[in-house]
């Protein structure tokens, strides 16, 4: 770990899904996450951009989706995120296994990875996910939904697994730019940790060698975002990428709920650096997050047309 680098855990993960209504049903009803923002894609305002997270939409809890009804399925390969994992209380893995059986969710039998009970499953669009049982998570605040009681509820991200030809160059970015440290290795997978941050503290690098390249589509992760406390921290990370790693970084983009820069890390995965502020309560009260369609300012004049074209979510 570079001692001078600000330590950055996960901010959010953005993936590609199929029909929006199916996506909402699964993530709110089956997984019990809160829909914290209902908006549209900045580059395609006819497409929903849906944000799920904990009760406040805290950084490190947010999984977002671009929802396209007729998207072609993606193909998992190197240069992609192969799994996104959530945290649950350790004693809840059995409860979730039974829930997945009853809800006909595609899943594997629980297994142990890095000493932690892990339940791998897929969402209806084919996205690879997991629940990881974490000691002490039961003492954390949780969003209690109608279908998932607080005692078993998801407590933010555990981490992501990146499938790469060579893990070393990506590990250098995690260490030097994001201040993470290498803490363990299990087979071909090396684990990095972002300090003591509870949410989204792990990035696992799976070195797959000459594996098939991935193809973006339904069930794929589009990008992985890391946290920046503020604009200055983000600018310092961007400076390091350019000056020390010769990696190009985009100009800052205002995403309403955070400000972002993007770059392609050496293994091919699209990374984002997103500020913690202003957060999801900037345009609607915290107690009604996700209930109304929120549009970027440039699309507000087109609201009627956009609302008519978007599919119903119920």
UniProtKB/TrEMBL annotation:
Keyword Oxidoreductase: yes
A GO molecular-function annotation: dioxygenase activity
Pfam families reported in the protein's UniProt record: Glyoxalase
InterPro entries to which the protein is assigned, alphabetical: Extradiol_RC_dioxygenase, Glyas_Bleomycin-R_OHBP_Dase, Glyas_Fos-R_dOase_dom, VOC_core
Cross-referenced Gene3D superfamilies: 2,3-Dihydroxybiphenyl 1,2-Dioxygenase, domain 1
VOC domain sequence ranges: 9-134, 156-276
The keyword Oxidoreductase is annotated on this UniProt entry: yes
Record key words, sorted: Dioxygenase, Oxidoreductase
Protein name per the record: Ring-cleaving dioxygenase
Species the sequence originates in: Hansschlegelia quercus
């Amino acid at each position: 770990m570079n001692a001078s680098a600000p330590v950055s855990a996960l901010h959010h993960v953005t993936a590609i899904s199929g029909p929006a209504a199916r996506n909402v049903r699964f993530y709110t009803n089956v997984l019990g996450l809160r829909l914290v923002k209902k908006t549209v894609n900045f580059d395609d305002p006819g497409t929903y951009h849906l944000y799920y997270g904990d009760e406040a939409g805290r950084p490190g809890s947010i999984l977002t989706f671009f929802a396209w009804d007729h998207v072609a399925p993606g193909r998992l390969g190197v240069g992609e995120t192969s799994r996104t994992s959530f945290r649950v209380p350790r004693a809840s893995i059995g409860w979730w296994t039974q829930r997945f059986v009853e809800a006909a969710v595609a899943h594997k039998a629980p297994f142990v990875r890095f000493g932690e009970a892990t339940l791998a499953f897929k969402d209806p669009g084919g996205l690879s996910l997991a629940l990881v049982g974490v000691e002490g998570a039961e003492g954390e605040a949780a969003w209690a939904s109608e279908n998932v009681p607080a005692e078993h509820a998801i407590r933010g991200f555990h981490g992501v697994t990146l499938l790469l030809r060579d893990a070393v160059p990506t590990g250098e970015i995690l260490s030097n730019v994001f201040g993470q440290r290498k803490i363990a290795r299990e087979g071909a997978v090396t684990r990095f940790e972002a300090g003591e941050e509870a949410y989204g503290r792990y990035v696992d690098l799976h070195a797959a060698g000459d594996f098939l390249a991935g193809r973006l589509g339904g069930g794929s992760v589009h990008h992985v975002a890391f946290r920046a406390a503020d604009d200055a921290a983000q600018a310092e990370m961007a400076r390091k990428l350019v000056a020390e790693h010769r990696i190009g970084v985009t100009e800052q983009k205002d995403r309403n709920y955070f400000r972002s820069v993007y770059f392609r890390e050496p293994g091919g995965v699209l990374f984002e650096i997103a500020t913690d502020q202003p957060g999801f309560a900037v345009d609607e009260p915290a107690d009604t997050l996700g209930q109304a369609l929120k549009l970027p300012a440039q699309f507000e004049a087109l609201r009627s047309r956009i609302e008519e074209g978007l599919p119903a979510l119920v």
